[in-house]
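DM from R.C. (forwarded with permission)

"hey, sorry to bug you on a friday — could you get me a structure for this? deadline for the figure draft is monday and I only need the backbone to look sensible"
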Amino acid sequence: MAALEMVIRPAAVLPDQAAQLILAGLSAADVRHGGLWSVTTTLWQRYDRPWDGALDSKGSAVLIGSLAVVYGTPRRASITVYRASITPEAAAVGWVIDQLCDEAFGYAGLTLASCPRADLLAPPRRDPFHSSSRQGS
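My reply, with the result:
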């Protein structure tokens, strides 16, 4: 089965308070400390289990999917989610884009369907899905 990737248009905008709740929830669920999420300023990645490799590496953990985000857009304290992907392994066991987004957004009581939306004039310059320096690789 192929990977699933979706450009989210209009982009999902996490308002200020929701963004803070989601970041706090994702931080508490960090893969290096028994959780399932690895978060950077451009990419949120969901794994199937906590990282168990040497020196805080992913070890046997398998990537489920990724969310590409931009902080401070369209407003200073908001976060915009503009792309999502599910790995072939995750798609094979039933994961879908909405489920990935809903899990992350759920820390603020939101879903992809209920999240405010905004059209981005142009995609961000640095696309983490096409970067050679992916987290956990």
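R.C.: lifesaver. The beta strands are 4-14, 37-39, 43-47, 63-71, 79-86, 117-118.
me: no worries. The helical segments are 16-28, 88-92, 97-105.
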